[in-house]
Specification:
two-stranded antiparallel sheet, single chain, alpha+beta, 27% helix, 71 residues, 2 strands, 1 helix
């Protein structure tokens, strides 16, 4: 299954295409039991909110510049 995720290379961040491999299985399976699935299927609104907050913290960390001066 091909999907996109957001990655940061130290300079910029953006979408990266990745092939996630899901082992074959028989019958039907709940989508949330798979190793990866779209976030629209997440049942826990707190998890989605937490992930959004963590993303905002990360964005803040990479956009702020910490400098020092001696002399």
């Amino acid at each position: 299954m091909f999907a996109y995720y957001i990655d940061y290379d130290g300079t910029s961040y953006g979408p990266v295409r990745h092939c996630f491999k899901i082992a074959p299985y028989e019958g039907e399976m709940e989508i949330v039991a798979l190793p990866c699935y779209p976030t629209r299927f997440v049942d826990d609104p707190d998890l989605v909110k937490t992930l959004q907050q963590e993303g905002a913290k990360f964005r803040d960390c990479i956009t702020k510049r910490h400098l020092s001066y001696d002399g």
